[in-house]
């Protein structure tokens, strides 16, 4: 086997094929919301309507995504992901047609809500790695780091690609090409049946409820940490756009935010190549502390210099702690999720993250309106500190000896 940890991953038969399909399917995740905002605001002349439609889609995803993931665990990735993707694609196409032909506003909300069935391809990919690398903690760490870097890359390139397509071709181009990429990627991913985790099958209602990830020891507290972490991302995006606009360079906001994602992507790859040391809970706590510390750089940069160049450098450095924090968090989710419910557990984590992004965006917008763009940068700092405190609390709770055997087993797995 190759010595390079990433080369060892892709030496596994079928790993390259399902990763390629997954990356193609994941790229549109950063395209759809930006494309919808451009398409709706351009046709209806209302950013408020565009924002409300995309918020409705986010709320619908928070409800539907865990249910879709549960079906994936029960019946298998290919059997559920393909029809779920078709339904989501039809919802996007319906939105496109409703905007194009001036349908009533309520049809936009209904169409975009239908896209909530989009499967969590990142979670399904992580579940495949966990299945293929079972028992090899170092390799799972590398795989999770790669997946987090892929997330950062897709969410960095997706909005840029969407904006370019909508501007260079026609307003609906971003949505249309996003649908094609999503369908193509999921079909390629689902075709790799040899690497797919075996479905768990149907269980009785009592067993289903008892085995829910939400009932796993330490899982609810960890999901709250994901909400706080999402608030860091959501507030940082809104405040950066507002600050760039106040400086008269709103168009530069995308490039500045891309630097933050680039720093996170690079740090994730480096972190994945390193050999993990110490208990997983402690690593998650240390990564959270680093994120909280580095998040103080952007407000200091804008307060001291007021320069977009200084802000760009600060965001590049601040992003270097987010990927390791997410990697260790997702690994904790894998450890705490009951056997056979891995897709559901990771989708719950993503749902918490999305909810936090929405809350952070609202909090960042409020701070910008009341206190100004420069002061708004303290919102992501506060969110990062909240994530650190919550992480510390759940780490202490996890390390406390339990009377129940099931809980002590979870602790030993994480150690």
From TrEMBL:
It comes from the Bacteria. Pfam families: MFS_1. Keywords: Membrane, Transmembrane, Transmembrane helix. The keyword Membrane applies. InterPro entries: MFS, MFS_trans_sf. Gene3D superfamilies: MFS general substrate transporter like domains. This is MFS transporter. The chain crosses the membrane at residues 6-25, 46-68, 80-99, 221-244, 250-273, 285-304, 310-333, 345-368, 374-397.
């Amino acid at each position: 086997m190759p010595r390079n940890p990433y080369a060892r991953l892709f030496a596994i038969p079928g790993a390259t094929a399902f990763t390629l399909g997954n990356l193609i399917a994941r790229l549109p995740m950063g395209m759809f919301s930006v494309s919808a905002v451009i398409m709706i605001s351009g046709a209806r002349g209302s950013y408020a309507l565009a924002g409300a439609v995309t918020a409705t889609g986010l709320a619908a995803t928070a409800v539907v995504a865990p249910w879709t993931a549960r079906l994936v665990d029960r019946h298998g990735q290919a059997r559920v992901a393909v029809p779920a993707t078709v339904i989501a694609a039809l919802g996007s196409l319906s939105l496109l047609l409703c905007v194009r032909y001036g349908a009533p506003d309520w049809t936009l909300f209904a169409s975009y809500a239908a896209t909530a069935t989009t499967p969590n391809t990142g979670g399904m990919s992580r579940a495949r790695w966990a299945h293929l690398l079972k028992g090899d903690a170092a390799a799972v760490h590398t795989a999770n780091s790669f997946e987090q870097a892929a997330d950062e890359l897709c969410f960095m390139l997706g909005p840029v690609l969407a904006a370019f397509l909508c501007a260079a071709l026609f307003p609906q181009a971003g949505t249309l090409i996003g649908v094609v990429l999503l369908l193509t990627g999921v079909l390629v991913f689902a075709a790799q049946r040899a690497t797919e985790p075996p479905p768990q099958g149907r269980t009785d209602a009592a067993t289903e409820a008892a085995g829910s990830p939400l009932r796993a020891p330490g899982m609810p507290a960890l999901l709250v940490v994901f909400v706080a972490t999402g608030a860091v991302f959501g507030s940082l995006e809104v405040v950066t756009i507002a600050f760039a606009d106040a400086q008269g360079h709103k168009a530069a906001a995308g490039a500045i935010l891309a630097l933050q994602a680039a720093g996170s992507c690079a740090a994730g790859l480096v972190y994945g190549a390193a050999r993990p040391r110490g208990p997983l809970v402690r690593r998650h706590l240390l990564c959270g502390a680093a994120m909280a510390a580095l998040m103080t750089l952007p407000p200091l940069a804008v307060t001291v210099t007021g320069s977009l160049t200084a802000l760009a450098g600060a965001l590049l450095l601040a992003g270097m702690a987010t990927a390791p924090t997410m990697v260790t968090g997702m690994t904790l989710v894998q450890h705490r999720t009951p056997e056979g419910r891995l897709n559901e557990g990771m989708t719950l984590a993503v749902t918490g993250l999305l909810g936090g992004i929405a809350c952070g965006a609202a909090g960042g917008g409020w701070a910008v309106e009341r206190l100004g763009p420069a002061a708004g940068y303290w919102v992501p700092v506060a969110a990062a500190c909240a994530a650190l405190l919550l992480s510390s609390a759940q780490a202490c709770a996890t390390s406390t000896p339990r009377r129940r055997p099931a809980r002590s087993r979870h602790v030993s797995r994480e150690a």
